[in-house]
Amino acid sequence: MQPVFRFAPSPNGLLHLGHAYSALLNERLARTCKGRLLLRIEDIDILRCKPEFEHAIYEDLGWLGLQWEKPVLRQSERFDAYGKAFACLKDMGVVYPCFCSRKDIAQAVADHMTEEVDPDGAPIYPGTCRGLSLAEVHSRINRGDEHAWRLDVEKALACIDEPLIYERFEPDQNNNAVKSISAFECYSLRWGNPIIVRKETPTSYHLSVVVDDAQQGVTQVVRGRDLEPATDLHVLLQKLLGLPTPVYYHHELIRGGQGEKLSKSLFSESLAELRAKENTPEDIRRMLGFY
């Protein structure tokens, strides 16, 4: 089977060196493995994603010299596919509606006197809405109360009759080829009951990414180390939905001068700003170790 890699940025800001590293690493591994490279635009966040940022993604990646297959998959055009996947989870009885606001959750966490957090650093949801009766759920939905949908991880795990295992691969020291593959066990319970369908959009990152990886035939997922814990949840969703599980590699993050993770929210220096300072694509590649 020909390997399929993908780079999947969100158009909610300008790309920085961290994005460039991930894109270039996917490109190199795809080339050396004689595989395919896909670009996916993850624009389900309808409030923050902007057309000008999507255009900037194409401009930045083209400037770096990357080439990818067309057409580009845009998640905002695939809500029907995510809806079908969610319907499957709903039919299995492994999701429940959550009417809590952030304030409600903060108060419930305080009442439970717990300091547990999920891998993203958010307080573990205490399951306030998990025990609501069907009558109350229907009543609140029918009157238009805003709600998200959460995955009941314990129920979900009970539906799986095999160990949750995925494989990681390690490139060699020059990121030119696969050096080794190892199996790792998932720890899905550390996520609590995560949101699978958000209040403001009919999907979530976790649901969309597993549906799209399967639809696009992605076989190797190469992404930042900060997303490594999400793999536990993604493998669980893949098993529930009968989707294939890719092989994963989570690379080290590019950090700023103070050791901080580069971030759009922190306004880390963008590729556009570096280009305006007369840096060349060769300068960026050399800076990131690709020469």
Automatic annotation (TrEMBL):
It is an enzyme of class 6 (ligase). Gene3D superfamilies: HUPs (3.40.50.620). Keywords: Aminoacyl-tRNA synthetase, ATP-binding, Ligase, Metal-binding, Nucleotide-binding, Protein biosynthesis, Zinc. Signal peptide: none annotated. SUPFAM superfamilies: Nucleotidylyl transferase. Residues 6-280 form the Glutamyl/glutaminyl-tRNA synthetase class Ib catalytic domain. Pfam families: tRNA-synt_1c (PF00749). InterPro entries: aa-tRNA-synth_I_CS (IPR001412), Glu/Gln-tRNA-synth (IPR000924), Glu/Gln-tRNA-synth_Ib_cat-dom (IPR020058), GluQ/Sye (IPR049940), Rossmann-like_a/b/a_fold (IPR014729). The keyword Zinc applies. Its EC number is 6.1.1.-. One of its GO terms (molecular function) is ligase activity. PANTHER family: GLUTAMATE--TRNA LIGASE, GLUTAMYL-Q TRNA(ASP) SYNTHETASE. Belongs to the class-I aminoacyl-tRNA synthetase family. NCBIfam families: PRK05710.1-4 (NF004315). This is tRNA glutamyl-Q(34) synthetase GluQRS. It comes from Hohaiivirga grylli. The gene is gluQRS.
